[in-house]
Amino acid sequence: MAFFVYNKRKSYGIVKYSIKHFFSNYAVTKYPVENTASLIQKCKQKEIVVVTGAGISTPSGIPDFRTPGIGLYDNLSEYNLHNATDIFDLDFFCRNPQPFFKLAKHLYPGCYQPNYVHYFLKALSKRGKLLRIYTQNIDSLELLAGIPKQELVEAHGSFQTATCLKCRQKYDGEVIKADVMNDIIPYCKNDWCSGIVKPDIVFFGEDLPQQFFKYHDDLSKCSLMLILGTSLEVYPVAGLVHLLPPQIPRVLFNLDVVEPFDEENIKDVDSFYCGDLVTGLKKVVHVLKWKDQMNELLEKNEVIDNK
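The chain above was modelled as a monomer; its predicted structure follows.
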């Protein structure tokens, strides 16, 4: 594959291609992927912090939220929403929970399987290099891939647990799964309560899990941050990228270059790979000579590797 190299001082373009055609055929990098492999090799035990977004789950078949035309927010017309983000608005949910549960039916754990990216993170964990993953995703595919729960912060919550909005009774997510899959709004099972049971997904305006706010300790121990498959538009998770000490390298793997990896903001210690996420990580695995370990993980979990 040909590489398109981008750095702070000079950029090169291929004028024959439209942007869309270009990104479908080329990877855009600042420094080759060998640099990422070298940084990973240099990390000691528990020194890598990973920030992930919807882009790591799209190879599993889960649409992201914001990609024009195909993202979930662009395909909610059947729900008759005034605004696509209403589906994660608590006031709207209390008035009309049906749209959220229609969406939840397609995102519930068990509907999708982990992919190569999740098992790359599992490989980091098995090597002892992973300190923490801060994921914006609510699909829990990291746990399904076997990543220890203590190494994962599901910053936007998950379907693993649920809570009655009226009496605050806690439920295991499996308790309400049958209702969700059968298009039934789950209600509290206490005889004296009639509250809706909402999966513990963080809606707009709700507090993030307490575990998230321990990030200060993690960032103080971090010697490398990997940012995978995210537009870095949703705070406070996106803010983690800006809180690292300036000498700590950050590496972005994403379809597009996003701030702070754009020309005006990128630091000398930073690098990025702009292209297909699975392809980019396979290159890193090749340089690390982890291919046998990755194949073992993929075969053990019967992962279809179609990239």
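Residues 1-26 have pLDDT under 50 and may be disordered.
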